[in-house]
Amino acid sequence: MARPSTTARRYAEASFEIAVRDDALDQWSNALDLAAQLLAHEQVAAIVDNPAVPLHGRLDVVDRLLSARIPAGPLNLVRLLVQRRRIELIARVASEFRRLLNRRRGVVTAVVTSATALTAGEVEALRARVSEMTQGEVDLQVQVDDALIGGLTLRVGDQLVDASVRGRLERLRAQLVAGARSAH
Question: What is the DSSP annotation of 81-145?
Answer without folding.
Answer: HHHTT-GGGHHHHHHHHHHHHHHHHTPEEEEEEESSPPPHHHHHHHHHHHHHHHTS-EEEEEEE-
